[in-house]
Please model this.
Amino acid sequence: MRLVTCIAFVVLLAVPNRAQDAPATDLSDALQLLQGASEELVIAPERVADVVTWLQEIRRRYPRVADIHVRGRRSLETAVLFFTPEARERLAGAKIVSDAEFGHRLDGPSGIDALDTLLEAIGAVLQPVGRGANAESWVAHFREDYDVPAVCRRFRALAEIAEAGWNPLMGDGDEIFLSRRGSRALFVFKRGRGGCPSGCIHNHYFYFEVDAERGSVDARGEAVPDFRSARYYLWGVPARFAVSVFADFDELLAASRHAEWWVVLHAAEATGALLTLRGLEHADPQVRARALWHLRGVSGQDFGGDAAGIDAWRSWLEAQDFTW
Model:
């Protein structure tokens, strides 16, 4: 887990988050589900409208999930910033004032021109975690509905920013997941019970496929995970990739060649580097990305995911003499 994620949980305790108190709506669900899907700061309105329409249609046709909303795994109003030591020295002279909304916030120039320009452009308020301007971490508060990962990329592009990332929200409960495959939108609604928010004991998953071209909405089944048995889960949700699904190497090899991408994803996740070359060559982008992630983690190398990279990974794996 990256440092920014670890500290962000601590940051959250000191930072007010108005989104947690707001009632969930189809619009708030769509904004959460589309986070990280845009290169621009603002998510395209037509994309938000599409997801809102699909959510409404699923809820209309399948009332069993009508009350399930995105719990909100991350704050959409804030990002956590960590400055370089040199930048912290420059920030030490900045003016911090008391504020009824934020407690304490930056007032006026920060002493870092590029940072001030970006804060003004996105309409953000900067709050130190703690009272001093020399705080180790700061929180940027937004007043607009941004794609937060895109905003964080803008912050990380500044030489004075050591890291910028999500401000994650703690807890567990109901949830919605969305992934796209061409014209198809794959929705998974999760109802969580027992032990929430520390971690739901009982979870019930409902799967729906929306075909934007045909205008169809179809239920694709349900799943109630059982910790005592291993299985494949449709579209890789929940993300439980048990190795015990495979009786032997032949079954694992067969899974890596399966026609369904989520079965190949399960094989890639469960085996790490053993069969990730199959995943790296797969047509589905999520399978390729996870296969490459495993290879980098196991090897400490980074040959890339293009044709030359695949050849280099193959040579590296053969040289390691991996066995089952």
Q: What stands out?
A: Residues 48 and 252 are 39 Å apart (CA to CA). The chain is about 35% helix and 20% strand. Residues 3-24+74-168 form one domain.
